[in-house]
Structure formats: structure tokens, C-alpha cells
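hey can u run this one w/ biotinyl-5-AMP bound, need the C-alpha cells asap thx
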Amino acid sequence: MLGRTLHVHDEVPSTNTLAMTLAQDGAPHGTVVVADRQTAGRGRLGRHWHSPSGKNLHCSILLRMNVPTARQPLWLSWVPLIAALATSRAVQTVAGLKSSVKWPNDIMIADQKLAGILCESSGLGTDEMAVIAGIGLNVNIRREEFPDELRAIATSVAIEAGRPWDRTALLAALLLEFETRCEAFLAGHHGDILTEYMVRCATVGQRVRVELAQGNTLQGRAQSVQPDGSLRVAQDDGTTTDVRTGDVFHVR
Ligand code: BT5
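ok here u go:
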């Protein structure tokens, strides 16, 4: 059960970093690390995650599952997508707010980022693998409290709902949504999760610009999310590319 072992801290550099250390020391499946504040909260590609005290949810969930080596790449591709789906659903269940997912794992309300996800793993090569799903969800931060560079591009549950929300209730709902979907995925209900993800994914059908890891860019229309979790983009020259990693921008 996710959260049966719970580490709660006032302040850590990064819940993901602490969760990875705990994983390497043998922490059990479902261990959750929560911190009120992060002094070095991390986004993808070394980016910073703004994590002030007393406002938002910063948590990292350790998934220690037995996944046959051949299926591990698929599992690794899907954990961030499942975490995004679970976060979006939890916000809707608890606060009644509809959000969408920008592929692969940004949770958005009207083009502003409500939550972000950073997944990290270790232990490839054996059947037992440890994946850390780190989730940063803006809960009670007010617009004027965001630093200048985030004010126009970020939002929070409180901004959208017009009142503060209980971070613990959101965490509990998130753990439940995440657990049921991880189990369904590993039990073979991959197609159901893909369908659910596609329904929430605002990227499908959009014109997109994708900045790829190697510094290349491609532009076209996002057609679908593929069973392997990649985003299929039909480019303007008629070719089709399945994007596995990259930063996606919705283009108007
Ligand atoms: C992410 O990266 O969106 C992943 C964020 C994961 C944070 C969680 S918190 C718990 C756990 N422990 C960690 O150390 N990390 C995880 P990326 O897609 O690279 O987006 C990063 C970008 O989002 C930044 O460059 C900013 O533009 C923006 N950003 C930073 N802080 C934000 C915030 N609080 N709300 C919205 N946008 C933010």
C-alpha cells in the first residue's frame, strides 16, 4: 500500500533525492517522502522546482515492483504518465477542478502549470526495480507569491478554486489513484490506462513544437499517444515521428 511507510519532513533538499537514498538502503515498496519545503527541488534536465514552505505538496513515492526485464522499458515510460493521470484525477476528486495533462507529464489548467512530475529509477538488469515518482503540486500558493518568472505560467488549486485546500487530503487521494492505476497497468490493463490517459491529454489533436533532447526541433500535429507511451506527431512534410522524450509546446 502506497504511504504505509511515510517520511514527513519540514525541509529537505529534494524529496526525490532522499527517496532514492532510502531505496538504496532497502526501503519497502510504497515508501513515501513528503516535505513542507524543498531547498533544491528538482525538475527535469536539472531545472529548478519552486518549493516554498507552508503552501504546496512535494512528495516522492517509491515503487519497488517485480517487472520482468523485457517489460521494464515499458513500465519506465508509463510511470510518469500514470502519475500525471493520478494527480489530475486526485485534484478533480478532492477539489472538483478539471485539469488536463500536457504530454508527457505536466498537469495544466488553461495553459498554466498546476503540477509537475520527475521520475527516476535504479536497478535495471534484475527483475526488481525501484522507481521514484516525484510529484510537485501547487496547492495553496497565491498568484502574488510565485516568483516573477512563474507568475504567468503557473497556477495552484487555491487560485483556481478560490480557497485553500487540505494538502493531506490531496496526498491521500493521489496515493489511492496512483496505486490502483499502477496495479491495473502491471496486471495487464494497459489499454484501459492508455484510453484514460488519452481522454485527459490536451496534447492529442494540437499543433505542437517539440524540442528534442539533442537540440533538434520538430513541428506538426500530435496524433495520438502510442502504447509505448510515446507521442505520435504528424509533421508538416507528411512524415510521422514517435517522440519518446522532449519538451512539448502547444502552438496556436
Ligand atoms: C517538472 O520538471 O515539472 C518536474 C517537477 C517535479 C517536482 C517534484 S517536487 C517533489 C519531487 N522532488 C523533487 O526534487 N522534484 C519532484 P520540468 O518539466 O523540467 O519543469 C520545470 C519548470 O517548471 C521550471 O523550469 C519552471 O519553468 C517551472 N516551475 C518551477 N517551479 C514551478 C512550480 N512550483 N509551479 C509551476 N511551474 C514551476
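The CA atoms of residues 41 and 215 lie 24 Å apart. anyway lmk if its weird
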